[in-house]
TrEMBL record, chain A:
<feature type="transmembrane region" description="Helical">
    <location>
        <begin position="136"/>
        <end position="153"/>
    </location>
</feature>
<dbReference type="InterPro" id="IPR009936">
    <property type="entry name" value="DUF1468"/>
</dbReference>
<feature type="transmembrane region" description="Helical">
    <location>
        <begin position="19"/>
        <end position="37"/>
    </location>
</feature>
<dbReference type="Pfam" id="PF07331">
    <property type="entry name" value="TctB"/>
</dbReference>
<feature type="transmembrane region" description="Helical">
    <location>
        <begin position="112"/>
        <end position="130"/>
    </location>
</feature>
<feature type="domain" description="DUF1468">
    <location>
        <begin position="23"/>
        <end position="162"/>
    </location>
</feature>
<protein>
    <recommendedName>
        <fullName>DUF1468 domain-containing protein</fullName>
    </recommendedName>
</protein>
<keyword id="KW-0472">Membrane</keyword>
<feature type="transmembrane region" description="Helical">
    <location>
        <begin position="88"/>
        <end position="107"/>
    </location>
</feature>
UniProtKB/TrEMBL annotation, chain B:
<keyword id="KW-0472">Membrane</keyword>
<feature type="transmembrane region" description="Helical">
    <location>
        <begin position="464"/>
        <end position="486"/>
    </location>
</feature>
<feature type="transmembrane region" description="Helical">
    <location>
        <begin position="314"/>
        <end position="336"/>
    </location>
</feature>
<dbReference type="Pfam" id="PF01970">
    <property type="entry name" value="TctA"/>
</dbReference>
<feature type="transmembrane region" description="Helical">
    <location>
        <begin position="389"/>
        <end position="406"/>
    </location>
</feature>
<feature type="transmembrane region" description="Helical">
    <location>
        <begin position="62"/>
        <end position="85"/>
    </location>
</feature>
<feature type="transmembrane region" description="Helical">
    <location>
        <begin position="197"/>
        <end position="216"/>
    </location>
</feature>
<feature type="transmembrane region" description="Helical">
    <location>
        <begin position="21"/>
        <end position="50"/>
    </location>
</feature>
<keyword id="KW-0812">Transmembrane</keyword>
Length: 168, 505
């Protein structure tokens, strides 16, 4: 993917890049159109010399739609070439998805068990996910790093980290 | 000559106050740590430290705060270069080329260049503050809403230059950023836009988005390849750049420092804007602009000199006019007042000795920053010796806690995570992240100042061309935006007539 094309029609692009360009452009056009539609609910400005709260979002969204249409046109014009980048594979995408899910789970857990517990488990899980499988070192590193971060932010920088509703 | 004599007296006074010297070094060290941690900015560092300085004498207290300020602006570059975690918004610009250099095994030289350039930019700004403060102070008063709008548009015009392989994709990222920047309270009427009823979105914090797009996205990417997972991050290499290499960067550093000082003087414009503008100008003047974004030392030097050049500029208007140049100096304004000093034209007359002692101390702070920075780089570079299977979880844990620290909000971590996922896919499909960050910084500034200027002119658009600074900045902005497009169009035409076009230009 790193050899993706410039916007012009002179260079080609792999099929996966072309599909991604088209999907992203269509999604962004939908987002921009929704933004323009929802500005209809914005109130009119009280100041005679002001353009109101809707003007700038409408301008940005309109330009975004035009740019996405240009991207679609360029993508359709460019020839399809073979993809020379090594494929990520299902296992690779699964690793990324699990990492994202672990982060979301850490965020959710932090509300209930607090920063310290959630982060220790989160770090140990991420290390396991990345191939560091030591049953001794994973928890030790997770506890030490979390303790250092906790002390730095909570005590030295006076940032009150979440305690968790279960421990309040 | 008068200023030089006063400065010498200041040096003598400072030399007799070792506690002030020690505290300024402590401030610099704290600033570097705070700047390096994601989510914690120099503003936050100064605000955290402020209560501790109440009991100190004015010189010690104010120098400690200055140390945090200078160290904080510089510190952001360390994690930006090593880990692609911009500790501060200005460091997001440094990360563009700094992290590419790390990937090439040149992290040490990148860090050394950043440290030297921060020092030179900062020192230049303090010297301008000392010797040219009264001359330049009036410049800040020339800046009203219309000039600030034009400056923001000029900043936004850089998007075309930092778009990477595809200008269209860069512009799409930029305008998506501008659309996201409109989420929250309308700057004139206070009407909540696109918030979906969430009060947390009334003021969209751009730092979580920045941390997500840069650091979290990079961490997620390193999870996809099992071979990368257990490997070492990268080598540090030599730290101090060879003189022949750095000599070629002196022009970039000088230009960027001047830009930083000028932008610092402008009220409301800070080191983040200075870093991006300096980067763009370095690229524009470079003989090899195509190398920018792929690991060019000039890019790192420009961002750091520009960002640190801002410090003296921001202090200049704060001390001479009582107008803070950015958020940090706004907090420092409070610190000065609490110490019984009233910033403004009379400060230099009534407390001249104290002011020049502070100036001498600020020079000492920058020298201290250079020594501490260069001395600690080898130690900080050990981060790269960690296996990625440990480093990536540490990066993500820092992203989470750093994001939380901005507003003590779990909601912000959600924003960071969403930005991280978006950033991962953007990276994958060659949509650059920097234009989004730039748009989030400049977008609200452009809108608020445009509407303010329009109100001030009674609804007339005359201010766009009748005010000289506004007209010049807008013209330069249009040229900056169009030139890369014209160049690429011409290159493509040449490619079509002369053979196949290179995919990456």
């Amino acid at each position: 993917m790193s050899n993706a094309p410039v916007q012009g029609g002179g260079a080609g692009a792999p099929l996966s890049t072309k599909i991604a360009n088209l999907v992203i452009a269509v999604v962004l056009i939908a987002v921009a159109a929704a933004a323009i539609a929802s500005t209809g609910d914005f109130p009119k400005t009280m100041l005679a010399a002001d353009v109101g709260p809707a003007r700038f979002p409408i301008i940005h969204a309109t330009v975004l739609i035009v740019l996405c249409l240009i991207l679609i046109a360029n993508t359709l014009r460019m020839p399809t070439i073979a993809d020379d980048t090594p494929p990520v594979g299902v296992a690779g995408y699964a690793g990324v998805a699990l990492g994202i899910l672990a982060t979301a789970a850490c965020l959710y857990a932090m509300e209930y068990v607090g920063y310290a517990v959630a982060t220790v488990v989160y770090m140990a899980a991420l290390m396991w996910l990345m191939g560091q499988r030591s049953p001794l070192w994973n928890p030790v590193i997770a506890v030490v790093v979390t303790a250092v971060i906790y002390f730095t932010f909570q005590s030295a920088l006076q940032v009150p980290l979440p305690v968790g509703s279960l421990f309040e | 000559m008068h200023e030089l004599n006063m400065l010498m007296n200041g040096v003598a006074t400072l030399a007799a106050n070792p506690m002030a010297l020690l505290l300024s070094l402590v401030g610099v060290a704290l600033g570097i740590v705070i700047g390096a941690l994601p989510g914690l900015t120099a503003t936050m560092g100064v605000a955290i430290l402020l209560p501790f300085t109440f009991g100190m004498d004015p010189v010690s207290g104010l120098l400690m705060i200055s140390g945090v300020f200078f160290g904080g602006v510089y510190g952001g570059s360390v994690t930006a270069i090593l880990l692609k975690i911009p500790g501060t918004p200005a460091a997001a610009a440094t990360a563009m080329d700094g992290f590419e250099l790390t990937k090439k095994g040149m992290a040490g030289v990148a860090l050394g260049t950043a440290t030297l350039s921060s020092f030179l930019g900062g020192m230049a700004s303090i010297l301008v503050l000392i010797f040219l403060a009264p001359v330049l102070a009036g410049f800040a008063l020339e800046f009203s809403a219309s000039e600030s709008f034009a400056l923001a548009v000029f900043g936004l015009s850089i998007i075309a230059s930092i778009s990477g392989k595809s200008v269209v994709k860069g512009l799409i990222a930029g305008f998506l950023g501008l659309l996201i920047a409109t989420v929250g309270m309308d700057p004139m009427g206070g009407f909540p836009r696109f918030t979906g009823g969430y009060t947390e979105l009334f003021n969209v914090p751009f730092i979580p988005v920045m941390i997500g797009l840069f650091a979290a996205a990079e961490a997620f990417k390193s999870m996809e390849d099992p071979k990368v997972r257990l490997g070492m991050a990268a080598a540090l290499g030599r730290i101090v750049p060879p003189w022949a290499t750095y000599k070629s960067l002196l022009g970039v550093v000088s230009r960027s420092s001047i830009l930083g000082i000028v932008i610092g003087i402008i009220p409301g414009a800070g080191s983040d804007i200075a870093a991006y503008v300096a980067y763009n100008e370095a690229r524009r003047f470079s003989k090899t602009p195509e190398n920018y974004g792929k690991g060019e030392l000039g890019g790192v030097a420009a961002c750091e000199a520009g960002a640190n050049g801002c410090t003296g500029g921001a202090l200049l208007t704060m001390l001479t006019l009582g107008i803070p140049g950015d958020a940090v100096t706004a907090v420092m304004l409070g610190a000065l007042t609490l110490q019984g000093l009233q910033p403004g034209p009379l400060l230099f007359k009534e407390h001249g000795d104290l002011v020049f002692t502070l100036f001498a101390g600020m020079i000492f702070c920058y020298v201290g920053m250079l020594v501490l920075g260069l001395g600690s780089l080898r130690f900080m570079g050990r981060i790269l010796q960690m296996p990625k299977s440990v480093l990536t979880p540490v990066i993500l844990a820092l992203c989470v806690v750093g994001t939380y620290a901005i507003n003590n909000s779990l909601f912000d971590i959600g924003i960071m995570l969403a930005a991280g996922v978006a950033g991962y896919f953007m990276q994958k499909w060659d949509f650059p992240a920097s234009p989004v960050v730039l748009a989030l910084i400049m977008g609200p500034m452009a809108e608020a100042n445009f509407r303010r200027a329009l109100s001030l002119s009674g609804g007339s658009y005359d201010f766009l061309y009748s005010r000289p600074i506004t007209a010049v900045l807008l013209t330069v902005a249009i040229l900056t935006m169009l030139l890369p497009l014209v160049k690429r169009w011409r290159a493509e035409r040449a490619g079509i007539s002369g053979g196949p076009v290179e995919a990456t230009k």
